[in-house]
Amino acid sequence: MRLLSFIIVLFALTFTSCKNNQDKASSKAVEKDTTKFFQLTEYLQGQIKEVNATPFFIYKLDILNNNQDSTPINTSIFNQVSSQFLSPDINDEKIKHYYTESIFEDQTTKSFTISYSTTNKELELQNVDVLLDEDGQTVKRILLRKYHNYPDSSAIEQLSWKPGESFQVNRSVQKSGNTGTSHQTIVVWNKKG
Predict the structure, then answer these.
(1) Is pLDDT above 80 for 113?
(2) Cβ(128)–Cβ(116) under 8 Å?
(3) Of 57, 140, 142, 151, whose CB neighbour count within 10 A is largest?
């Protein structure tokens, strides 16, 4: 009789334990992040793909400490320079939780701005602004701000993408001893106006 009671108690404990583990697993599934951020990387990859598929005349303008140089480039160089916009991806589950989203409607410019920012100074990508037309669908401009910290210097990059037309990267490097350099790269493939 004691053996039967022991088996019943053991079975009840096992069943309860399994049920608790299932509840914990289902609550973890509920906790999974369902926030939808703007699909920035996908959008920019589509823009890059369009440039690669269309026979645009592409040129790059480099400005380094007020010295300027303009050069025609091919799609291979275009892909290399534009790759700066693709990483890191704010939709990556490893970093997404560090970013907060805010939306602002500017009635003067008839546009919406979706902003993503972080307070984590260890992350390379600090801010993303996506400017949308008043229809809420058409992207007018994408702005990224990156920060790099090196042993002997730090760098701030301001990246700007104008859909279907151009992008630019402004890089300011501050070295120890207060010496600094600035470098601006502008890439144009479909100049409008």
Answers:
(1) yes
(2) yes
(3) 142
Taking the whole predicted model, whether its pTM rises above 0.85 is answered as: no
The answer to whether residues 157 and 146 touch, using CB atoms and an 8 Å cutoff, is: yes
Cα–Cα distance, 130 to 139 (Å, whole number): 7
* Residue in 116, 112, 141, 134 with CA at minimum distance from that of residue 126: 116
pLDDT confidence of residue 146: 97
The long-range contacts involving 110-116, CB below 8 angstroms and separated by at least 24 positions, are 110/134, 111/140, 112/136, 114/38, 116/37, 116/38, 116/90
Region class of 177: left (phi > 0), else alpha (psi between -120 and 50), else beta = left
Q: For residues 87 and 124, what is the distance between their CA atoms, to the nearest angstrom? A: 9
Q: Is 9's pLDDT higher than 60?
A: no
For residue 191, give the 3-state DSSP assignment.
coil
Tokens of 184: 């601006």
Neighbours of 131 (CB within 10 A): 19
